[in-house]
Amino acid sequence: MAWDEWEQLKADAGSRGSSRMQLNGVPGGEGGGQQGDLRVDQQDLAAVGDSAFKLFTDLGRYGRDAWSSSQAAAKDLKAQEFELGGALDVVQGRWEKSLTSLLDACAHISNHMDFTKKAHAGDEYYIASTVSSIATLDEGFDEGTKR
User: What's the pLDDT tens digit per position in 6-28?
Assistant: First the structure.
């Protein structure tokens, strides 16, 4: 945006009687007064984290069950000069790469949900302590006016 354009926008906003500008936002009357529709609570976060951890555990335990038999079959097929042996080797390598990526993603989700739960718990504590401090302050003012 050029400087002249910025100055023109400021002048236009000033001519509408507004004492301030609102950029990248929704004007107050639109949207039904809601702040958004995304809501989450601790149980939701816990369920997502638990599911990711369970998937991580099960994939880690069972995801490589066919590895040794696939490798043995690939080796045997190669020894008999079947091209399928090399193809089976490639498939096994891709499976391992995909499995590792999925395990990493599950671990990341699980860890992030744990972090998010702790961060929100800290936020809740901060908000509660701030609000209770304000209530204590209000009580002090109320006591001062009763005398």
Answer: 778 777 777 766 555 555 555 55
